[in-house]
């Protein structure tokens, strides 16, 4: 059982509509014996996939989305769902700072001003509040009021170890503060990204799909001798010319590193 504090936010840094969730989560959970097991790593892509499936399943259940459209959205390369779990709170002060960020207000009065000459509301945002957006006062009012929660809507919720029911159960049992015994688990080596994933990321094509028939290919051999690779390429008279160059992105450097580390031959 982990401990989770969830905060619902509907706004972005421009007071615009940007629905998202913030979670303060323990890096692991407690078993029935009271032993806390620390999770060595968190798989963000896998969590994003689970998150997307749960949200779309809920929308289908509420008849707000058809099952066909839900399947179509899940088949997209970029579903619009994302998980970012790189922020770590190692101390109490860091946890408090994360908690304050999770429940921060909609806007800052220090960033708000009025251009009386043009009758525009000005709001500074972005890193160090260097960006400026000007809007009509009615638009400003509409943006602010659109983020007011519905009556009775709870925007901060507690689950697991942090739930009121669980803490009340511990207190009723006269156990005082919850005695956590931490068990460290071995950190398994995280495999590097493969060449196929890097090609999909850079060129947005799947190298494991045959361009002729659309069938799924499979790796039949791993070749590390470049002389053998060159002989195969020359024998098959293959040429490799990209239809478009890759974007100037860090993923391109990762692709080059992956290509230098291993060469694979597949059919």
Keywords:
alpha+beta; about 270 residues; three-stranded mixed sheet; 11 strands; 3 domains; single chain
Commentary on this structure:
The protein starts with a strand and ends with a strand. The protein has eight helices and eleven strands. Strand 1 and strand 2 form a beta hairpin. The chain folds into three domains: 3-105 and 151-183, no CATH class; 107-146, no CATH class; 195-266, no CATH class. 4% of the residues are buried. A three-stranded antiparallel beta sheet has the order 2-1-8, covered by helices on one side. Helices cover 33% and strands 22% of the residues. The protein is α+β, with helices and mostly antiparallel strands.
Rg value: 26 Å
- The helix content, as a percent range, equals 25-40%
Helix-strand pattern, N to C? Answer: EEEEHHHEEEHEHEHEHHE
- The domain count comes to 3
Q: Topology, pairings included?
A:
Elements: E1 3-11, E2 17-25, E3 28-30, E4 35-38, H1 44-61, H2 67-75, H3 92-102, E5 112-115, E6 120-125, E7 131-136, H4 137-145, E8 156-160, H5 164-172, E9 181-183, H6 195-203, E10 219-223, H7 226-236, H8 250-261, E11 263-266
Parallel strand pairs: 4-9
Antiparallel strand pairs: 1-2, 1-8, 3-4, 5-6, 6-7, 10-11
Helix pairs in contact: 6-8
């Amino acid at each position: 059982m982990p401990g989770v504090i969830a905060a619902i936010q509907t706004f972005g840094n421009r007071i615009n509509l940007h629905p998202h969730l913030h979670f303060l989560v323990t890096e692991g959970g407690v078993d029935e014996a009271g032993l806390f097991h620390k999770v060595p790593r968190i798989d963000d892509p896998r969590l994003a996939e689970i998150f997307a499936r749960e949200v779309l399943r809920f929308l289908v259940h509420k008849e707000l989305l058809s099952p066909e459209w839900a399947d179509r959205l899940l088949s997209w390369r970029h579903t619009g769902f994302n998980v970012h779990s790189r922020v770590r709170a190692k101390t109490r002060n860091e946890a408090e700072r994360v908690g304050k960020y999770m429940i921060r207000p909609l806007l800052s009065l220090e960033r708000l001003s009025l251009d009386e000459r043009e009758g525009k509301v000005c709001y500074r945002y972005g890193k160090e509040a260097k960006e400026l957006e000007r809007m009509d006062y009615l638009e400003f009012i509409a943006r602010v009021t659109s983020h007011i929660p519905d009556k009775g809507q709870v925007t901060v919720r507690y689950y697991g170890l942090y739930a009121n029911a669980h803490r009340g159960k511990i207190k009723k049992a006269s156990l005082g503060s919850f005695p956590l015994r931490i068990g460290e688990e071995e950190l398994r080596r995280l495999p590097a990204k493969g060449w196929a994933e890097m090609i999909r990321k850079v060129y947005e094509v799947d190298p494991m799909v045959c361009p002729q028939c659309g069938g799924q290919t499979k790796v039949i051999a791993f070749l590390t001798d470049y002389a053998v690779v060159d002989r195969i390429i020359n024998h098959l008279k293959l040429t490799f010319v990209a239809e478009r160059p890759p974007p100037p992105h860090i993923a391109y450097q990762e692709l080059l590193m992956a290509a230098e580390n291993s060469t694979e031959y597949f059919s």
